[in-house]
Specification:
two-stranded antiparallel ribbon
């Protein structure tokens, strides 16, 4: 045992505590370092002049197991310390060229655990939630400018999102679940249950979760950190959830299940699920998933996108004067895109004929006609390699004034397809 927290009623109890520790030290060989031990005094405390206080007295805040407690502002102090650690972690990960999927994984496995521990003691305040959200999306986009709505980013990939963890909601859910389990599931007579019922039962009368017992004392002046519990329950319509289901992951899944399917502009609502399934296919690399998703959601930094935000002088395609550069134009309508598709006619003949291609096939993976699963998969991979080559050629033309030929783009497509072949071979070896 490394850290011990003890509550003492008066200085006589403190003296008895020191004597007990000394006896334990003689028997075990361990020793309490009173110089490093800290104490915080609450209420009226009469210090004896004859016997000096053996511990260092902290006037404002005291840290217990990594969390600050004490006077008003202890919660904010704890969160500021955690946010500093999060910013350090994110700063290191920002040095790597990660995809959105990779960054979401970092947030879920590296950032969230750092914050979840504090959330068990202090729920995040509104200002803390805003700071966390701002840090998360600056890490996702690499700048202060969001390219896609945050509410869309939180949705599951098969609903049109990217599965970015909603960290503020997860932290609030962790605190609320801890309160619910401690109040409704712990045994009668336990200290945690009694303390929680003292503050929470007056708030829960409207939820009909617990029976009112007039023999038990209640506090009608609920602390601020308990005030958001009922608000969270009603905000996410969780009033009917059974006590044994109040677990952070379960609650978060129920909240995300309420998300609606994102519609695809220009397509029928019935096809949206198929499109997002294609975009989030496990048969694609993370980079191609991001490219296809942003092309549909309008998140690519095209000239039309940048011009609308006063970040570019013109909104026209660099190859087609007076034609607005959009995803549909870049990957389908532009003569350069059509020329590259013609150059890939031989590759297309192995899966989908060139004359059967439409913009829906290139952008969404919706191929006309009845093709087998294998042919459709290879065609969709080829379309993503094609879009990758188009996007690279476009960026080189604008940023470096270099023009890639059809032959250069075709070689790049072959290189990307070779990577897919290696990936398939590796997956096959793992299965064997």
């Amino acid at each position: 045992m490394d850290d011990v927290t003890i509550f003492c009623a008066d200085q006589r109890s403190v003296t008895a505590l020191v004597q007990t520790c000394e006896k334990f030290g003689k028997a075990s060989g361990a020793k309490v370092n009173c110089g490093k031990s800290e104490a915080m005094l609450f209420g009226e405390w009469h210090l004896a002049s004859s016997a000096p206080f053996p511990f260092t007295i902290k006037p404002d805040f005291i840290k217990i197991l990594g969390v600050w407690f004490g006077k008003e502002g202890a919660a904010l102090k704890s969160w500021e310390e955690r946010l500093a650690k999060v910013n350090t972690k994110i700063g290191l990960w920002s040095l790597r060229h990660l995809t959105i999927e990779g960054k979401a994984l970092v947030l879920r496995n590296e950032v969230l655990p750092v914050l979840q521990y504090t959330a068990q003691a202090w729920p995040p305040h509104v200002t803390v939630c805003r700071a966390i959200t701002r840090t998360v999306f600056r890490f996702i986009w690499g700048s202060k400018m969001d390219r896609v709505k945050r509410s869309v980013m939180y949705k599951e990939p098969r609903k049109g999102g990217k599965g970015v963890p909603d960290i503020p909601t997860l932290l609030r859910a962790a605190f609320v679940c801890d309160c619910v389990r401690r109040t409704l599931q712990q045994k009668n007579g336990s200290a945690g249950r009694s303390m929680s019922r003292l503050f929470l039962l007056p708030l829960w009368r409207g939820l009909s979760w617990d029976k009112w017992d007039s023999s038990i004392p209640y506090n009608w002046h609920t602390p601020w950190f308990y005030g958001g519990v009922v608000k969270f329950v009603r905000e996410h319509q969780l009033e009917g959830l059974k006590p044994d289901l109040w677990k952070p992951k379960t609650v978060h899944k129920l909240i995300r299940a309420q998300d609606s399917m994102e519609l695809v502009p220009g397509l029928a609502a019935a096809t949206a699920e198929t499109v997002w399934t294609n975009v989030a296919s496990a048969k694609l690399t993370n980079g191609h998933k991001d490219l296809s998703w942003m092309a549909i959601q309008g998140g690519l930094p095209l000239r039309s996108f940048m011009h609308a935000r006063n970040l570019c002088k013109t909104r026209y395609c660099p190859r087609c004067p007076f034609v607005e550069e959009t995803s549909s134009h870049l990957f389908w309508q532009c003569p350069f895109a059509q020329g590259l598709l013609d150059a890939l006619e031989l590759e297309l003949s192995d899966c989908v004929p060139r004359n059967r291609l439409t913009h829906c096939a290139v952008l969404y993976g919706l191929f006309p006609g009845n093709f087998g699963d294998e042919a459709t998969r290879e065609a969709w991979r080829l379309m993503n390699c094609f879009k990758d080559a188009i996007w690279l050629a476009r960026n080189r033309l604008i940023l470096k004034k270099e023009r890639m030929s059809f032959l250069d783009c075709r070689r790049l497509v072959h290189s990307l397809l070779r990577d897919y072949s290696i990936m398939d071979r590796s997956d096959q070896e793992e299965e064997d």
